[in-house]
Amino acid sequence: MPFPKALFAAIGVTAGAAGAVILTPFALYMAGFSAAGITAGSLGAGMMSSAAIANGGGVAAGSLVALLQSAGAAGMSAAATAGVASVGGTAGGLLGGAVGLLKRMRR
Description:
By secondary structure, this protein is mainly alpha-helical. The chain is built from 4 helices and 2 strands.
């Protein structure tokens, strides 16, 4: 039985959005942005050091480092969660659509 044309894209959007929302807190933690602060020797510590040097000793409010630390410490806001889900869903949809296209070309 042949699958509908948009099935792979729909599955990709769903999996991409859910996967991105679920995995983002883990990725933040692995990069060194945790509830306890920025982990010494991590990617986050390197980013913080670079931002502090560039800004004359402090990290600017609203900078990428500040936003990532806020998300790592307190969790993502509703707007950030929606943005992450949108990016993940778009990537998943593109991948799912490509799989569907390749399956149709293979026949």
